[in-house]
Amino acid sequence: MHVLLIEDDPLVASGIRAGLMTFDFVVDHVSTVNAARQAMRTVASDVVILDRGLPDGDGLQLLAEWREQGNDVPVLVLTARDAVRDRVDGLQGGADDYLVKPFDLDELVARLHALLRRVAGRSSGLIAHGALCLDPTAREVYVDEQLIMLSRRELVLLETFLQSPRSVLSADQLKDSLYGMNDDVESNALNVHIHHLRRKLGSGVIETVRGLGYRLGKPEAVHVAGTPYKGQL
Amino acid sequence: MSLRARLLLTLGLTLALLWGVAAAWLMRDLEEKFVETLDQRLAQSARMVAGLVLQLPFDVWEDAEHPVLSIPPIEGLACQVHSPQGEIMARTHADMDAILAPGEGGHTYRQAGDVTWRVFTYERGGIVITTADRMDERDMLLSGVIRMTVVPFIVALVGSMFALWLGVWRGLAPLTRLRESLANRHPDALAPVATYGLPKEIRPLIETLNALLARVQQTIIREQRFTNDAAHELRTPLTAIKTHLQVARRVEGQAAITSLNYAEEGVVRLSSTLDQLLTLARVEGRVRFDDGEASRVADVAEHALADSQHDTSARFIVPPHWPDVALAMPRELAITALRNLLDNAISHGPADAPVTFGAQWEPGERHLTFSVSDQGPGVDGATLEQLTQRFWRASKQQGSGLGLAIVAAIAERFGGEVTFVSPAEGGFTARLVVPVAGS
């Protein structure tokens, strides 16, 4: 999952970034309103963490701007001001959630997952797809209650597909989910990860849509490698 | 005692007293005039009788069947005519010889039994005439007159008391309404009190009150902003510390050490902000800083230089001799103010350019001026005015935003002044004017 972190205090930002990365989030950090605008145009973020007091403006103004443009990316507002007025302003200004500093890293992660779940229209914390079940917080994947070992990137990639089960995702969108803006990405890295997923979860788990990208396969296409694919019987 | 009760009591007592004195005065005059008038009438009736008697031929009396003429009596009034020989020639009452016996001329009182008479004796042409009035008749007449006079007085007194009560009640009604509207206010409501419909005597009072409310509101807003800013400044490093510590627990090796280092950096920042906040609170509070030591300029300047966060004295240009004078302020605060100015110059000036530190004072002058100049880019005019605001700072990386606010607070406490100059071509100079101790 790609997180755009907009926070002007370098020490806080480095902490959140390091913390989220331990939970397999891909974090891009910007510290000004202008840089955030730029990042929003170039990167497909799944969720935004927004600090209010930025050197070149109020984070809430930026949020209002996005909502006006019809951008409904889930936004969690961070603030050191806990006056009720501030919180109400934040939520009325289009924020999806609100967290007062200092916060607990686990709580931040839980809230981010809750936001993502709400966007995908799920009510449970676990993401199920046929026999497949992904626990976003524990970072574990099961098929028929059997634990499947996936690498960090594979898990993130699978999570991205499960987050938008019916959409066709372009290669660029998928790369944004896997890598930050400053990461060096090898050109065939995405293909390698998809290949590994198909090998571990069945070739039908991810479908290629020629010319457009990829999408999640049908629920019955999921099966554990080594066991026969029921559809082929 | 309420204003209304006091007004009612004062005015009521005064009115009652005035009306009472006026009534007493009137009664006294009335009584005097009454006695005088009745006495006159008594005398006139005697003269009238004398006139009548003298017009009669003298032998009328001789021929009379009865030696004593009897005149039909009039209630309360008696008359008796005496011949020159002292015989009674005519009388109204046969039983009042003692009362009506001729006496000295003029008015007198005579007592018969329990009845007092007012007697007038008049002599003309040898004939002596006495007339008499019953005093109890007179008294009844007088008390009747007094009753007639007193009733309007009482009506007027009661009427004016009522008018007074009504006037005071209506006159003070705006005050009552004001009191009620103030009493019904929410304790937090600082909106101005409406002056509409208030009499012009109270209006200035309410306007003063409104001005006070406005000042209180501004103070509260300022305090709230300060609390909010302070919360922000304390929570931000706390967030960094907490997050990095949580990261350190989740990762291993070099990454954990890096996170711990970051957390430590946050602790340093937090403690510096706390120190600055406490210093500001102490400077603005009533805490005494005197340690009994004189603040010699050279001593204070050396300490400030030594304390300054970057211990690179090579970067400072200092005068060869400091003015030989003591400052009229505690040593600790003088050092703190100068150190903050030096820190500010170091962090904003270029690393390779020196900071110029000096002091100007001529013997006899009552103030000394420290100046600290850096060769940094300087600030624009609008920023100059914000420099001493609490928590204002050029960027997040630099300081707590309290350094210059502390300098301004120290200067203000000791009757000094801090000013900043930033010419368009760059560079920045802070001037701190402080009082010197009287020799």
Please work out how many helical segments of chain A DSSP would assign: 8
State the major sheet of chain B: 6 strands, mixed
Q: Indicate the mean pLDDT of chain B.
A: 85
Number of helices of chain B: 10
So what's the overall shape of chain A? globular
**Record field, number of beta strands of chain A:** 13
Sheet/helix structural class of chain B: alpha+beta
Helix-strand pattern of chain B, N to C?
A: HHEEEEEEHHHHEHEEHEEHHEE
Strand fraction of chain A:
15-25%
Number of domains of chain B: 3
Strands in their spatial order, largest beta sheet of chain B: 1-3-2-6-5-4
What is the correct CATH architecture of the largest domain in chain A? Answer: 3-Layer(aba) Sandwich
Give the total of beta strands of chain B: 13
CATH topology of the largest domain in chain A: Rossmann fold
CA-CA gap between termini of chain A? 35 Å
Q: Name the largest protein-protein interface in this structure.
A: A-B, 24 and 28 residues
How many domains would you count in the coordinates of chain A?
2
**Segments of chain B where pLDDT lies below 50 for 5+ residues?**
none
The CA-CA distance between the termini of chain B, in Å, is: 56 Å
